[in-house]
Amino acid sequence: MSRSAAAATQGLVRLPVWRARFVLAALVGAFAVLASRSIYLQAMKTDFLQEKGEARYSRVLEVPATRGRILDRSGEALAVSTPVKSIWAIPADVELSGNDQRKLAALLSMSGPELNSKLSDSRDFIYLKRQVSPDTAGTIQAMGLRGIYQQREFRRYYPGGEVTAHVVGFTGVDDVGQEGIELAHQDTLGGRAGSRRVIKDRLGQIVEDVESIRSAQDGADLTLAIDSKIQSLAYGALKSAIEHHRAKAGAIVAVDVRSGEILALANVPSYNPNNRTRLSGAQLRNRAITDVFEPGSTLKPFTIALALETGKLFPHTIVATAPGRLTIANYTIHDSHPAAGLTVAQIIQKSSNVGAAKIALGLPREAMWDLFNRIGFGTAPELGFPGAATGRLRNFRSWRPIEQATMAYGHGISVSLLQLARAYTAFATDGELVPLRLVKTGSVAKGEKVLSTDTARAVRAMLELAVQNGGTGPRARVMGWRVAGKTGTAHKLEQGGYAADKYLSSFVGFAPVSAPRLVLAVMIDEPSAGQYYGGVVAAPVFAQVMQGALRMLGVPHDAPLEPIELPGEGDDAREST
Amino acid sequence: MAKLNLLLLAVLVACAIGLVTSQHKARKLFSNLEREQNRARELDIDYGRLQLEASTWGLHQRVEKIATGTLGMRVPDPRRVRIIPKEQIR
């Protein structure tokens, strides 16, 4: 027993102590390595690892934003964005059978070789065609072609077409405004695309919304002051007049006197904003706002108004205008209807250049400049419209007497049609210049007093006389409403001189005279079918549009409903500026 | 002690099942929401398209052309029009 026990004890190998310690140390060391690695992963690299993990299931999606619509004052759409598809391809992945290739080319309305050349591009991403209709996109989708993909985009449509083209403008292919209101109000119209993070399952379906990184902001709708019925009427009347008189171009502006809102603004030639291939600069120009011209006689009422303000002249004061000519330095001013003497009112009625020039020469240069400046000539209207013209009003210190005389009847000064229409609001109200707006406000505009009430009323009466028989603009009258206005027939400036046979016919006026509601300015550039007087070319457009617009606005009649008797083929409309 | 442990185990299992169920319900509701939101977007787009169509059909030149051409209508003579001011309507 004891032997065997001793044997067992002897059988135990006496291991050296250091071996046990070594194993222990190795184990502790291994644990230390593991622990430090886990600390490193958990504490130091945790962000990176979590990100990698999330990337397996979470996705950031873009939330598209729609561009705001542009509406007319009654809510009719003038510009709307609708989604369309763009077809794009990864050229290296595309394998087309001959049949598919022909079909695709036909759907994209391009020739076979054209499609092939696009697909042989070495880039990774090419647009085959942008903005195709949903139907075409659907057909292409159904063909299930490899390497050909679709992307949703927005396309802007303009139902108003050429009628509202100049006001509304248009956007480029990237849905950013390039012209007109689309450009001016890009900030509010253009939405901001948002993005959000979601969790997707294996099938690609969204199972959870993690966070909204940035919420999408749709562009705000914009309601314009434009009344599309009046706009359409104005454009139609202007266009047919321009065709009839074989004119180069023309523009028309209608302003609501009470609110300063622009109810219509049209230009001819125009363009179709939905199809902008082969556009010329002439078509794109918004003449009413961006072009300036020498207005001619339509400026005379302001000279007369200033003379009345000084208190030296009255509407019935007689000004000697014999013999219908006035020579200053070596320049002679002519009258079309020479008379020995005309009252101040008759100077407007007969559009006498000599009379206006004589009155102007009796006025201080500074006062004349001051009035022109106050009624907004030489400063761009605050309209928030790109490219609004300032016109040209030279400093009075550099005026020579002849220049002061010609400026009295609208030469040597240039304005835009819009500035002219705005200036006439001073006669339509009791001397208040109404600020113009293109965006609907619905409020009454606060005008700036530029003429005394008495003067404004006196000139208004003279302007009404100018459209009676015996004046230069009887064709501007309409049945049922009293009309006032002034004709203009200016020679065009060309290479430093006045062209003898190129005219710019205009008419600016307002109605109804008892409580003016609408100011309408018409300008027709180079009528070349024989007639060119403002009273013959522009006044009928004014009458046609005014008649329709007053009816549409429901303005009460203030004149007897009798047919208008025109002076026949008289030469009353004749005027030389 | 063992009884308490068993009870706690039962509570734990119940909670776990509850969590799974509610998570499932939440996902289901969410996918419904997603579907409805998509539908709303589609409808909005449709609305825009219809509005576009409406203004194309209702274009003033077109209305006028049809009125004067096909329907033989015309603007009444101003003498046959009575304008009633707003104040009188009330």
Task: Record the SSE blueprint.
The complex is a heterodimer of chains A (577) and B (90).
Chain A: H1 2-11, H2 17-44, H3 46-54, E1 58-63, E2 70-71, E3 77-89, H4 98-107, H5 112-119, E4 126-132, H6 134-143, E5 148-157, H7 165-168, H8 180-184, H9 186-189, E6 194-200, E7 206-214, E8 222-223, H10 228-244, E9 249-256, E10 262-268, H11 281-284, H12 287-290, E11 292-293, H13 300-310, E12 318-320, E13 325-328, E14 331-334, E15 341-343, H14 344-350, H15 353-361, H16 365-374, H17 401-408, E16 415-416, H18 417-428, E17 432-433, E18 448-449, H19 453-466, E19 484-494, E20 497-511, E21 518-525, H20 534-537, H21 539-553
Parallel strand pairs in A: 2-8
Antiparallel strand pairs in A: 1-6, 2-3, 3-4, 3-5, 6-7, 9-10, 9-21, 11-16, 12-15, 13-14, 17-18, 19-20, 20-21
Helix pairs in contact in A: 4-5, 10-21, 13-15, 13-19, 14-19, 15-17
Chain B: H1 2-57, H2 60-68, H3 86-89
Residue share in helix of chain A: 25-40%
Intertermini distance of chain A: 149 Å
In DSSP terms (H or I, runs of 4 or more residues), the helix count of chain B works out at: 3
- Point out poorly predicted stretches of chain A: none
**Sheet with the most strands, sense and barrel status of chain A:** 5 strands, mixed
What does the overall shape of chain B look like? rod-shaped
Strand portion of chain A: 15-25%
Give a concise summary.
The complex is a heterodimer of chains A (577) and B (90). With 577 residues, chain A is of the alpha+beta class.
Features:
heterodimer, A: 577 residues, alpha+beta, Penicillin-binding protein 2a (Domain 2), Beta-lactamase, 2 domains, five-stranded mixed beta sheet, five-stranded antiparallel beta sheet, 21 strands, elongated, B: 90 residues, mainly alpha, 3 helices, 77% helix, 0% strand
Model description:
- The complex is a heterodimer of chains A (577) and B (90).
- In chain A, 35% of the residues lie in helices and 22% in strands.
- With 577 residues, chain A is an alpha+beta fold.
- Chain A has two domains: 61-223, Penicillin-binding protein 2a (Domain 2); 228-271 and 286-553, Beta-lactamase, CATH 3.40.710.10.
- In chain A, helix 4 (98-107) packs across helix 5.
- Chain B has a domain at 47-71.
- Chain B is built from three helices and no strands.
- Chain B starts with a helix and ends with a helix.
- The model of chain B has no long low-confidence stretch (mean pLDDT 87).
- At the A-B interface, strand 3, strand 7, helix 10 and helix 21 of A face helix 1 and helix 2 of B.
